[in-house]
Structures are given as structure tokens and as C-alpha cells.
Amino acid sequence: MSSDISSFADRLGIGFKNLKLLQQAVTHRSYLNENRNYPLDHNERLEFLGDAVLELSVTDYLFRNFPNPEGELTNWRAALVNKDMLSKVARRLGVEDYLLMSRGESKDVGRARNYILANAMEAIIGAIYVDQGYKKADEFIKNNIIVELKEILSKKLYLDPKSYFQEKAQEIYGTTPSYRVLLESGPDHNKRFVVGLYLENEKISEGEGPSKQEAQREAARKGIEIKNW
Amino acid sequence: MSSDISSFADRLGIGFKNLKLLQQAVTHRSYLNENRNYPLDHNERLEFLGDAVLELSVTDYLFRNFPNPEGELTNWRAALVNKDMLSKVARRLGVEDYLLMSRGESKDVGRARNYILANAMEAIIGAIYVDQGYKKADEFIKNNIIVELKEILSKKLYLDPKSYFQEKAQEIYGTTPSYRVLLESGPDHNKRFVVGLYLENEKISEGEGPSKQEAQREAARKGIEIKNW
Known about the structure:
Two copies of one chain form a homodimer. Chain A has twelve helices and three strands. The first copy, chain A, is mainly α. In chain A, a hairpin with a 2-residue loop joins strand 2 (192-199) and strand 3.
């Protein structure tokens, strides 16, 4: 076992009895293809387990601390446990420095990397649960993930960016934003859209993506930034 | 509080400290409309919580007892925690005798009832968790839900009925089943399909449903029964 992994455990603040569990948690399936004699399995079973631990920990916290209806709590939970949030937490914890993956995967630092990081984050939670029990995993989740709830609630990040931009536009300008496709290119299996976000006839921002929906969301995200909402 | 609810607690084998939690767990939202002075909330928050408890309990059990890849465990879990299974368990535990719902809902004993029962089952798990803690809830889930796993695995109930019928047909007759739409009626928003399931040109069963897919699944379910597979 590399000395790396024990420094990672230190960084997480978890005194793992079995460091192999933590190492497995940062082992992406692609790593095994290039390292046939690697003694551990990849992290997908730990991810399966960690996902359920995370779900209960967050659900329990929301249930006990907020009297809101189930529908609202469900939205808040989704904002806490989605891939974007988990990959953000993973980066903060330095998971990227310890990820084991194929050379091919190593080169892709965009969306695919976020997905791998988010899954590793769940697997790490699974590893803590197996090694240290539920209470310790729950504590880890509170300190590293539930800590994001305050910002989620104050910035209404549980709304998707389009809904949030619309709510703010109506509140401040009394107007409903609209989206226009500015560019559509590429073959069917690899489309690219550029969409503009407008208030009345003023263009606020542009977004780009593989579908109109994703381009609109991107435009809304940028619009929120530009407006400082 | 009715004496009923304490007999229900006895039936579940759980010594509730706070029986109101159990009563809330069997209170459907519709009941509050007709009983404005009812002192408790409906069961949706408990259901939100119980769903996450159930998920961890089942996930942990599968993780610890089976070395299978995550994809298989996910399918098995889905077969254990889906609405059909939960409503079946709820009926076996007599939940129906204690459900509080509107007169309107009381009349509907079909799919809508199953849905209400399954949700009440999750809410009951949530109530046990709040009142008695995780360990007791986990035990209850093992005794009443995970106990179904043996049959799920031996009868491959984690496959959808169409996949299962096809697998059996190929194994026994070396032939692939086919489906034919026998009847399509009703307006767009309220379609009704009747579909026949065939082996070669012999009709084995018929199924009915609001979409072709659902009618096919129903036909496959009946086909499995008829063939005694």
C-alpha cells in the first residue's frame, strides 16, 4: 500500500483500521484494466453502500431540524447529494490527488472527472461506514456535506438555475425572462446549442450545451452571476 | 387515541414509547381534509424518513451478504423496496385495517390503495426509527421485508416479468415470445390497450393497461402464472 493513502486518511481526519478500504474507494473501474495484478476491487460496491449511508444521514438531519413538508426537504436533499455538490466536496478534500484511474480517464478533466469524483466521494463514505460504523460516517457527512446546507438555503440553490433566475427577474424587474437559440450546429449525435437569455429585449448572457435545455441552464447560471443574484 | 393503534403496535411487535408516531404513520393526507381537528400531521414526512432507513438497511444487508457487482445488487434492492413489495408486506401486517384516509380513497381498492399502503409501510419504518432507533428499525426490516429476498432470487423476480418470461421461453421452448396489440381504445388521455402474449402462434395470455408497455407486462405476469414458471 502506498504511503499516500495513509496521508489521505489523515487529511480526512479518519483513523482507518483498514486502509485498503479507503484505497478501494478511490479506485476507479478503469484503473483495473491497466493494472491486472492490482490486489483490490474497484469502488462501485462501496459507492452503492455509501450512497445509502449519505441518503439516510442527510434525510435524518433534515427531518429533525426542519418542520417543512416532505416535498421541500426532498428538493433540499437533492441539492446536497447531487453529483455537482459531491464533486465539489471531493475536490475540497483533495480526493483528486489520490484517485486511481486509467491514463485515458486521467486526461479528461471535465464532466467525466466530476462524475468520477462524486462517485469516489460516495465510496469514501461507504468505506468510513464499513470501517468505523454509522455514527462516524454520519459525523463526516455533517462536517463535510451538510455544512453546505446554509448556502443552499440562502441562495435557493435547490431551485434549478432557470427557476431561480425567473423568480429573481419577476421579483426585481416584474418581467419574465426568455431564451432564444442563437446557434445550432453539429450532427444529430453531437449537437451543440448556443442560447441567449433575455430580459425584455436585452441579452443578459449566453449558454452553450449539447441540448437546448442544458444551454438554457448554463445561460441562467451565468445570468445569476452577472446580475450578482 | 384509539385503542386500535396500540393493538396495531402489538401486531407489529414494537413497544412504541410514543404511539402517536405510529398513528401518524397510517394517516393519509386525504384524511386531514375530512377531519379538520385531527391533532396529528399526515404521514409524508415519516415516509420521507422511512424510505431512507429502508434503503440503508437493505443496501447494508446486500453489501455484507453478497459479493455480487453493484448492478446486480441494485436490481435486487429494487425488487425488495418497490411499491408492489411494500404494499404486499403492508397487507400481510394488516396495515389496511388501521389506515386513516378519506371516504373517497377508502373506496378505491386498486392501484391507488397499493400506493397508499406502500407509503404507509415506509412511514411505519420511519416511526419505528424515530421511536426506537436504527437498530430496531433494521431488525423490523430484516424480519418483514428482507425475508422476501430468498423468493426474489429463486424466482428471479428482480427481472421484470417480460424479461423473465422471455428467459424461460427460450430455455424451455427455444423460442422468443412476441406481443400483439389486440385492442386499442379510448381518447388520448385515457387510452386502454389489450395485448396478447404469443409463443409461436399460440396465444398464452392477455394483458390490459393504459400503455402498450403496461399491457405487455401484465400479459407476461399472467403468462408466468399460466405456465407455472
